[in-house]
Amino acid sequence: MRRRLFGSVRARATLGATLVVAVALLAAGASVLLALRSNLTDQASSEAESSARKVAVSIATGTAPNGLDLPDGDDTPVQVVDSEGRLLAASEDLERISGTGSPAVKPVTPPVDDDGGDDDDGGSDRHGGKGGEDDSYAYGEIADDAERSEGSATVDGETRDYRFASLEVKKTRQGDLTVYAGASLSAEQSAVGTALTVMLIGFPVLLGVVAAVTWLVTRRALRPVEGIRREMSAITASQDLARRVPEPGTHDEVARLARTTNETLAALETSVERQRRFVADASHELRSPVASLRTQLEVGAAHPELLDVDGAVADTVRLQELAAGLLLLARLDAGERPGEARVDLAALAGEELSQRPAGRVAVRTRLEPVEVAGSRSQLARVVGNLLDNAQRHARSRVDIAVRAEGPWAVVEVGDDGGGVPEAERERIFERFVRLDDARARDDGGAGLGLAIARDVAVRHGGALTVSSSPAGGALFELRLPVAPGV
């Protein structure tokens, strides 16, 4: 079941789209969370530094640590620490702190004045309310940059995380002092937690929507493909090549697939029908000479004196030629390559003419040497078939010419016979097709010569056409590519 599910294009497309969106959402969500956390942390750092700088300004302008007006510890815990790490001032209700220079939460007793008198009640007032301002503290210098750190603090029983800023104040009466001020990270943690919760809830929902939409869209897009598959399966089962797959009215890849499939079916139907006709016509053509030869042999067996040896030989030759033609057509249909031998068409035409005895018609030639690449035997068969056809239909003259015409080698064979009607000029190249006039003149022809000639021409990258000759008969023109390097 699992293999069948993930063997579906629809399932793979849905899974792929969902994974891509999931990765994109994770990357975007992580970026948003990091950016949100960074912005809120920077904001907390700025607030902490601002609070630390306000306290540092008070100290630098002469306010004693025990006389500082420190902010509420719930929002901004503050410590003032001297160079020896002693806590001189701290926010009210501060119970515990970490991440600063001192873990102390209770200030030590401030130093005595120059006159040796004690500052009453100064050690018990963290805000310095009773101490007031002490002229014994000199003005100090505030550092330009604050250092930042993270920690936690417990104020009035509540523990929170804070962003701390430390700012140094130099050259005070108490020496160098450091002010620590914190800003709560509760807002940052709350915002990040809320965003994370939204993402944890929203991302699965969004992925589900993406998966559902992708599944529906791919189902709609692949529905014509399923129709094509069902029709092809039905065609295979019925072997009815006349059927066609449905073509959607779109202009996408599926529509092009359907059109290509129908074109393939049409070509296959034509090929099968051609093969059927070929077999039927071959059987019909073979039946006559075989029956004639059998009759002659049976008569000869019963009455030797009546045996027509010449007729038997003629029927045998006819059978041999028909079998050779059928074998060549079979090889051409099987895709046999023509070869790369160099053939001089003028010399080939001369050889074909020399093998034919002088007949009832005159033959005029105009042969110019020109070479092509291909099968010598197949090209000889083409030229021979064209000459045989011209000599059968000519009244008194046959003209044959060979010449080069640009990148083409041209062989023209014409006669002064009745010609070929324009409506029949393509039909005569079909297998076993003989016009009525040809049947009257053709003594034993099977109607394969011109079909073989055109097939060989096409296999050699050329063409064979027929038109009217200047003498009034038929003019066959064979065009083949000139051999490379000529």
Describe what you observe in this structure.
By secondary structure, the protein is an alpha+beta fold. It contains 9 helices and 14 strands. It has helices at residues 2-6, 9-60, 186-238, 253-302, 309-333, 345-354, 376-393, 436-441, 449-459; strands spanning 78-82, 87-90, 94-98, 141-142, 147-155, 158-172, 175-184, 341-344, 362-367, 371-374, 397-405, 408-415, 463-468, 474-481. A hairpin with a 4-residue loop joins strand 1 and strand 2. It is rod-shaped, with a radius of gyration of 53 Å.
| Unreliable residue runs | 112-137, 437-444
From the N-terminal CA to the C-terminal CA, the straight-line distance is 65 Å
- Rg calculated over all Cα atoms: 53 Å
Q: How many β-strand runs?
A: 14
Percent of residues in beta strands: 15-25%
User: Helix proportion of residues, in percent?
Assistant: 40-55%
Biggest beta sheet attributes:
7 strands, antiparallel
| Computed structural class | alpha+beta
Instruction: Give the mean pLDDT.
Output: 82
Name the shape in a single word. Answer: rod-shaped
Helix count equals: 9
Whole-number total of structural domains:
3
Order of helices and strands: HHEEEEEEEHHHEHEEHEEHHEE
